[in-house]
């Protein structure tokens, strides 16, 4: 079902819970830091396990648990980018930059592109994440359903590399316009002219301040700030490797970091990809339609560990400045208002089942329908 109504965002039931607390927000940061420290403390005993096979199995479980806990800090940094952590922009950006940089995320760069996602959710032309391919990109005469092995292999690559490729080359985004290309050299400035001559304008990356992802000089400065913060953190990681060794750092940081990325892709993919989620072309897209084209899911204990980014995401797209500790209350108020009853998407399917279903069935959308849904080869039209 697609949305065909307007909505008053000044609903008092919701506005009453847009209340940020420094104490509460920093309390959750402390919670995640303590949880991470406790897991790492017990991880220090892994090397005492005499049996190598058991030690490897425990190491795998340890890395998974540590990465799962660290994902909570990622969500808090994301909240900072929405100005939902505290009333202070300086506090939000400082905390967000520290937390995201620790997880190798360019804070300001992603803050800007993520803002574009919220402003253009589910727009085929303008959304910045999980924009599906269309039937025009598929050769139906040659294409066939991949084997189970190919599907599993592709899914593993997607989960482990998807986030990194998005940051590096803006993968899975809509086509980025190139406004700078229409300017004369004199209007660009010396720096932009040099960047264009080096091909930097066409490298759409969260690490590149010269590319066409950024709207103004202020954003480009923010990208540089993100890069500088990351360089400082990479230097710190280098010193830690020299101090503790590659194996220790791999087990305590690099592999858990990959698990953070895996969780991030799983969560965000399932929020925006489902057979029930409509995608819109410009003639039918509205902000509200796009915002309501997201899915709430129950991830069990992960809902708590990841600050309810999983089960209150529809609300988050409508009221992005509500802090996570009010999100459940606000979601209930939104549903009790009956404003979005028939448009609210909440899937009770276990997340791992939904992940496989979406990855194997949500292959493409039609190019010739202003409102379109995911299809697979089983529903192809030719």
UniProtKB/TrEMBL annotation:
InterPro entries xrefs:
FA_desaturase_dom (IPR005804), Fatty_acid_desaturase (IPR012171)
Q: GO biological process: what's one of them? A: lipid metabolic process
Q: What highest taxon heads this organism's lineage?
A: Eukaryota
Signal peptide bounds: none
Which intervals hold domain Fatty acid desaturase? 59-336
Q: What UniProt keywords apply to this chain's record, in alphabetical order?
A: Membrane, Transmembrane, Transmembrane helix
| Regions crossing the membrane | 20-42, 54-77, 89-108, 148-169, 221-241, 253-270
GO molecular function, one example?
A: oxidoreductase activity
Q: Per the record's keyword annotation, is DNA damage included, yes or no?
A: no
Q: Protein name, please? A: Fatty acid desaturase domain-containing protein
Organism name: Reticulomyxa filosa
């Amino acid at each position: 079902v697609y949305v065909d109504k307007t909505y008053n965002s000044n609903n008092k039931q919701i506005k009453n819970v847009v209340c940020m607390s420094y104490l509460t927000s920093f309390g959750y940061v402390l919670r995640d830091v303590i949880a991470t420290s406790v897991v790492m403390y017990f991880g220090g005993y892994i090397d005492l396990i005499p049996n190598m096979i058991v030690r490897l199995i425990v190491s795998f479980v340890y890395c998974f648990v540590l990465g799962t806990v660290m994902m909570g800090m990622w969500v808090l940094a994301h909240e900072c980018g929405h100005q939902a952590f505290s009333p202070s922009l300086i506090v939000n950006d400082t905390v967000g930059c520290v937390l995201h940089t620790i997880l190798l995320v360019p804070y300001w760069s992603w803050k800007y592109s993520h803002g574009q996602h919220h402003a253009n959710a589910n727009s085929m032309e303008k959304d910045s994440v999980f924009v599906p391919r269309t039937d025009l990109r598929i050769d139906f005469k040659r294409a066939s359903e991949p084997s189970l092995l190919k599907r599993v292999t592709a899914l593993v690559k997607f989960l482990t590399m998807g986030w990194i490729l998005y940051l590096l080359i803006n993968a899975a985004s809509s086509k980025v316009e190139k406004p700078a290309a229409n300017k004369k050299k004199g209007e660009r400035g010396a720096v932009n002219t040099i960047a264009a001559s080096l091909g930097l304008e066409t490298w759409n990356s969260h690490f590149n301040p010269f590319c066409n992802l950024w709207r103004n000089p202020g954003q480009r400065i923010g990208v540089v700030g993100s890069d500088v913060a990351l360089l400082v953190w990479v230097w710190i990681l280098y010193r830690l490797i020299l101090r503790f060794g590659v194996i220790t750092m791999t087990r305590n940081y690099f592999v858990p970091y990959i698990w953070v990325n895996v969780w991030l892709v799983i969560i965000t993919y399932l929020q925006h990809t489902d057979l029930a989620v409509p995608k819109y072309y410009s003639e039918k897209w509205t902000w509200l339609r796009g915002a309501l084209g997201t899915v709430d899911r129950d991830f069990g204990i992960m809902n708590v560990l990841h600050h309810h980014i999983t089960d209150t995401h529809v609300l988050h797209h409508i009221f992005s400045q509500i802090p996570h500790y009010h999100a459940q209350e606000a979601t209930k108020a939104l549903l009790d208002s009956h404003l979005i009853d028939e448009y609210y998407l909440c899937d009770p399917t276990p997340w791992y089942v939904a992940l496989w279903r979406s990855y194997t069935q949500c292959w493409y959308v039609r190019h010739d329908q202003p409102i379109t849904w995911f299809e697979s080869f089983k529903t192809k039209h030719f």
